[in-house]
Amino acid sequence: MAMSHSVVIVGSGFGGIGMAIRLREAGIGDVVILEKAGELGGTWRDNTYPGAACDVPSHLYSFSFERKTDWSRRYPQQPEILDYLRNCARKYGVLPLVRFGTEVTGARFDAERALWRISTTRGELEARVLVSACGQLNRPVLPPVEGRETFAGPSFHSSRWDHGADLDGKRVAVVGTGASAVQIVPEIAARAESLTLFQRSAPYVIDKPDRPYRPWEKAVLRTVPGVYGLSRAKIYAAHESRAVAFVKYPGLMGIMERSFRRSLAGQVADPALREALVPGYPMGCKRILRSNDYYPALAGPGVTLVTDPIARVTPSGVETRGADGRTAAHAADVIVYATGFASTDFLAPMRITGLDGRELNEAWRDGAQAHLGITVSGFPNLFLLYGPYTNLGHNSIIYMLESQFRYVLGCVDAVRRARLDWIDVRPDVQDAFTREMRERLRSTVWETGCESWYMTADGKVVNNWPGFTFAYRRATRRPDPRHFRARRGASEPAPLA
């Protein structure tokens, strides 16, 4: 017989670990975290490529309830972020709750028993409440390029880095120019004999005001009351102010764009290369990237930027085709695919079935929908963290996650106190929220004429929150009982212990 639990969380990144901590603090001890990998950490476990780092300052890219005053630098790097998350799991006692090597393949809501029946690669278990903390950037995408499997040397996605591949003195091809590539290219250019970067569209890359923290600064942050909180508040306010351009007045991006062009001119002397690095879409429409060494690396010796589309991969490299139809061969010993993630699929490839046999993939056939990005109508006692309409272009996702923790706790507490079988967000409430999001998104910079990972295949932006983060926190302060339908008494629900 399947073991039954109060809450099962899928994923052990910032969302899963933070949610488990908050649940335990609320007195709900019967919590299980299912993790398909052998270690916790989510995206910071998976992305171990050279140069991996965060583009949000460390004092803000951390839990408000677990302040770390000894970050080594202003913008944290992957190993330090992963260590921070491990320390949180140990300190708050949630590490023993994680079942590693357990991949969720599906979940079906048993309405009669008011339980989620969860199928995993290690058997079945049950839960009163199911929380998805899978995130948006966990399923790597490889380009559908002819011949990709024929390449004779090492080839891999940036989030599945092959640390056994020797890059020193080799000819390395990097496909893609997103956030990962901007960090990888400078690191590899310094080691490889040559680096060829294949660019489909140029990103906007701005300066990253990064530096190590001095010993005296760490001492002050550690010992002087209020300094850390002031630093965090200052960083938050500076980042939050940028929402004005992203979601209110996209025309303000023109000021940043002119600053970008001046900076680019100062870093890239070659006019032809500089012209190729100027994006052909408004600034902010795609993710704005931060780096101090990307453009200098591209302007350096041994690095070639290729803007012709890839025609196919061959055993010895990459072949492109120009506008005139002519092909060109680019020899490579190693290929790195920095080609992003299936960001709009959310819970895929899990098969989630709610009331009346309704499948989540079917419910989302026109794009993912969830009220406040958290609850989905027809799927009782299911809660999403970092779901649709909760991604940001200007601030820390940890802030958004903490808002979601509070909302989920409010829902769980309502179920517990009223001894409800389940709660389910009303379809009209979800539909109204979705209409509001889509209407507000039309006036944002993300819908000014580009394709991005924020969009579905048919052009709907379903990832981003079209407003200020403090407005989202206000909206998620507590669940509104009027937004939900509930069942009580049809069965005797197991307590949320």
From TrEMBL:
Its EC number is 1.14.13.-. It holds the Pfam family Pyr_redox_3. GO terms for molecular function: monooxygenase activity. Keywords: Monooxygenase, Oxidoreductase. It comes from the Bacteria. PANTHER family: FAD_NAD(P)-BINDING DOMAIN-CONTAINING PROTEIN-RELATED, L-ORNITHINE N(5)-MONOOXYGENASE-RELATED. This is Flavin-containing monooxygenase.
